[in-house]
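dumping this here so i dont lose it
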């Protein structure tokens, strides 16, 4: 088994094993800012809030479908992802779209990071793509599921000139964004060929052509192409007194369209983003709806890897906590630890580190906290107990190998985590089937026959997607899937991802 494992590994592109230390979202943030910074490094605040003299608009052209050659667009080059350009080429579009549809939104930070790298990677289009952008659209929809709206918009911009079938996705993304105006130019450019009448009516009204918008709404209502509630919403938006009072009193959908979300906002009855799917949280990131709404949005998005760590820290440290309890306690914990590290005060670091981990260690903010502070904690002067805690926290960060060297295990779980972080299980005996499954993945890996077949056909992208789907099943309790997914990740050179995913699975299992 080991011989076959390494024989196949030798056939892989040599750059695949060199994994990027940053998440895709952090890498994109650095490119946008123009400077790189370490996680946890605070940026200087301006003396006054920045004032914009203009409105950002998506600089995207629209073209007919025949002008597009492929849907191989990506943001991250092979030098960043480690993936070869051919990762999708030998697969069929149908198979890839099906796999993306089956891929759940992961709670595991290592799998989240891998997912972003896969979705944003540059790569040759599937061989049967024929410029239809079906696979590209599936990647965008998965990014929306994660709430990664800015990366999705950047991907769309890279695809310009945009084919007509993708304009509805662009329109939705622009409505979900906290910085862009609605992409109405592209909608109106398509005219009657645009598939949704409500978007055209909305865009005509925004352009100032209220008469045409009203006439089109009357026609759509008569033809029955709009629901009664959506018709009433549009009539209220157009300030048309003929709206159906009964229809508008219907409760809003639990999953409204981005346009419905903006229409409710425009008529003065905004929907709370906290009760809507994750993508709507992005609308609160600007802070226009208050700091608390911005904080809740930042927490929801970083939980699923859709927000850069430094941007999260900037939002969290932008103001003083307004009260105590709940989110305000979390803010105080992060701010106190950050300030203690900046002051290099060993006593305060030890005190606030324990407080912060007690509060956040069992929450979705455990991994972001680790990534933000581990590098500074591992280099700080700490008491023995604080250094041990800092080492355990750092197991959730890219510094997990260095962290394992300073941990003196006091429990079986600690010993298992150290063995997992170092990859050396010689001195550890598994205490459960769960631990034995993970240990087997690193000592006696089991590679499914289907993986060998896909690799021999050059379908690396399918292998990665299948491995992530299997990992989620394994995290839910299927130990065979867990064994095979970790084994597959290691086979294709994603050793770092396999270890970090397993460490997070163990530490955040509750």
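and the seq i came up w/
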């Amino acid at each position: 088994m080991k011989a076959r494992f390494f024989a196949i590994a030798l056939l892989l592109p040599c750059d695949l094993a060199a994994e990027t230390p940053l998440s895709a979202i952090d890498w994109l943030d650095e490119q946008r800012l123009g400077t790189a910074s370490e996680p946890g490094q605070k940026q200087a605040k301006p003396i006054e809030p920045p004032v914009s003299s203009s409105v950002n608009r998506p600089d995207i052209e629209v073209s007919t479908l025949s002008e597009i050659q492929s849907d191989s667009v990506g943001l991250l080059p092979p030098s960043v992802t480690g993936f070869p350009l051919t990762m999708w080429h030998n697969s069929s579009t149908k198979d890839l779209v099906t796999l993306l549809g089956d891929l759940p939104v992961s709670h595991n930070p290592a799998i989240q990071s891998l997912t972003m790298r896969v979705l944003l990677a540059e790569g040759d289009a599937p061989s049967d793509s024929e410029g239809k952008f079906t696979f590209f659209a599936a990647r965008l929809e998965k990014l929306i599921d994660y709430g990664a709206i800015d990366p999705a918009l950047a991907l769309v911009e890279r695809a310009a000139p945009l084919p007509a079938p993708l304009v509805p996705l662009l329109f939705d993304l622009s409505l979900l964004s906290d910085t862009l105006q609605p992409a109405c130019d592209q909608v109106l450019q398509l005219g009657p060929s645009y598939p949704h009448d409500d978007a055209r009516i909305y865009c005509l009204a925004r352009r100032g052509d209220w008469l045409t918008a009203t006439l089109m709404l009357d026609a759509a209502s008569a033809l029955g192409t709009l629901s009664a509630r959506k018709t009433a919403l549009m009539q209220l938006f157009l300030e048309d007194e003929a709206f159906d009072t009964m229809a508008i009193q219907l409760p809003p959908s639990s999953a409204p369209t981005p346009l419905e979300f903006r229409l409710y906002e425009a008529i003065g009855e905004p929907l709370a983003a906290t009760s809507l799917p994750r993508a709507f949280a992005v609308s609160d990131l600007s802070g226009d709806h208050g700091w608390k709404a911005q904080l809740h949005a930042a927490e929801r998005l970083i939980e699923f890897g859709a927000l850069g760590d430094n941007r999260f820290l900037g939002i969290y440290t932008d103001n003083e906590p307004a009260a105590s309890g709940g989110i305000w306690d979390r803010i105080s914990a992060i701010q106190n630890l950050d300030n203690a590290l900046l002051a290099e005060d060993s006593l305060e670091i030890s005190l606030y580190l324990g407080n912060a981990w007690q509060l956040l260690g069992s929450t979705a903010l455990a991994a972001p906290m680790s990534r933000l502070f581990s590098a500074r904690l591992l280099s700080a002067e700490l008491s023995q107990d604080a250094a041990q805690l800092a080492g355990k926290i750092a197991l959730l960060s890219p510094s997990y190998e260095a962290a394992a060297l300073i941990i003196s295990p006091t429990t079986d779980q600690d010993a298992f985590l150290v063995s997992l972080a170092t990859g050396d299980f010689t001195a550890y005996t598994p205490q459960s089937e769960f631990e034995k499954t993970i240990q087997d993945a690193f000592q006696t890996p089991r590679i499914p026959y289907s993986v060998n077949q896909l690799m021999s056909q050059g379908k690396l992208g399918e292998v990665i997607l299948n491995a992530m789907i299997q990992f989620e099943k394994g995290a839910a309790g299927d130990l065979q899937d867990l064994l095979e997914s970790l084994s597959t990740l290691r086979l294709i050179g994603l050793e770092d991802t396999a270890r970090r995913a397993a460490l997070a699975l163990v530490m955040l299992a509750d």
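The beta strands are 62-63, 162-163.
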